[in-house]
Amino acid sequence: MTSKNVTLKIDSKVYDEYRKFCKEEGIIVSKQIEKFIKEELKNNKKQVL
């Protein structure tokens, strides 16, 4: 699977807090966003690649 760079506009406080959380938990932020998108597609019965 290929990756794609994207630009998102997210509230800076929310992003900074989530980034800190991910760092503490050893989680990669981009992978968490990808998981969220896949789950949203699944919940809305869209095909997940």
Helix and strand arrangement:
Elements lengths: L11 H14 L3 H15 L6
State the order of secondary-structure elements, H for helix, E for strand. HH
Strand residue content: under 5%
Gyration radius from CA atoms, angstroms: 13 Å
Give the oligomer, counting copies of the same chain as homo and different chains as hetero: single chain
Mean pLDDT: 91
Class derived from helix and strand content: mainly alpha
Largest sheet: none
Q: What does the overall shape look like? A: globular
Number of helices: 2
State the distance separating the first and last CA atoms.
Answer: 9 Å
The total count of strands amounts to: 0
Binned, the helix content reads: 55-70%
Q: Residue ranges: pLDDT <50 for 5 or more in a row?
A: none
Task: Note down, in words, how this protein is organized.
- This protein is mostly helical.
- It has a domain at 12-43.
- It is 59% helix and 0% strand.
- It has 2 helices and no strands.
- The protein has helices spanning 12-25, 29-43.
- The longest helix is centred in the C-terminal third of the chain and has 15 residues, at 29-43.
- The N and C termini lie close together (9 Å).
- The model has no long low-confidence stretch (mean pLDDT 91).
